[in-house]
Specification:
Elements: H1 4-14, H2 20-27, H3 42-51, H4 58-75, H5 88-98, H6 103-125
Amino acid sequence: MASVDELLKVAEKSANPFTEAEIDAALAHHPRIGERAAGSSTEASLSRGEQANLTLDDQTSADLLTENRAYEDRFSRVFLIRAAGRSSGEILAELRRRLANDPADELTEVGEQLRAIALLRLAAAFNAAPAR
């Protein structure tokens, strides 16, 4: 690989699209947005870091809990969104918007978010910004 940018381009292409089975496997141990990931695994540590800047007052925490449960009831998986760089209000608005998606459209959005998270993590491993 000649550069990190090339690596990120190859990674993005390779992960597009994710299959439903790949998405389910990736989300199997993923915490709800707004909840601290438990444990010492790399995944838990990365998730905690990505959500570290979220400011959650009592009302936002309660709303996220309610909307997360509604999402899980509707789509049978945790809500996944790239939290890095987003406010809790933006995340809550996206969660509410995506509740109206049909299952196929939501699966596409989950794949896009999973890809964005993976690329951010890969870029961070090389101390680089993802090309976008």
